[in-house]
Fold this protein.
Amino acid sequence: GATCRFDGTALGVLTNVGPDSGALSITIDGGAPMRVDLSDRWCYYWRSTIVVLASGLERGVHKAEIRVLDEAPDRSVLKRPITDANYLDHPHLSITPKLWLMWFVAIGA
């Protein structure tokens, strides 16, 4: 997992999403865990995007704890079948769901 302290009213991540994108469990300031699915209908290929993890927080400093859930990605939401040659040639790449974390993005600081 990862821990991030941030000053703002919302938190997101700049990440790559694709066929191996699963779901995250997010806890803000020790509160109840929230589920964030990284898969969407466009995850039949990899792309960079910003995913909002939490919003509507009180202005101030917060602590986020992020964990990748050990669940297979929900490919039923895909717009079309996966056609990425790298993925099809290396199916072992999708065994474990991943979070390709590039940057945390704090909003409303």
Notes: The longest helix spans residues 85-89. The chain is about 5% helix and 45% strand. Strands lie at 2-7, 10-17, 23-28, 34-37, 47-54, 61-68, 100-107. The first strand starts at residue 2 and ends at 7.
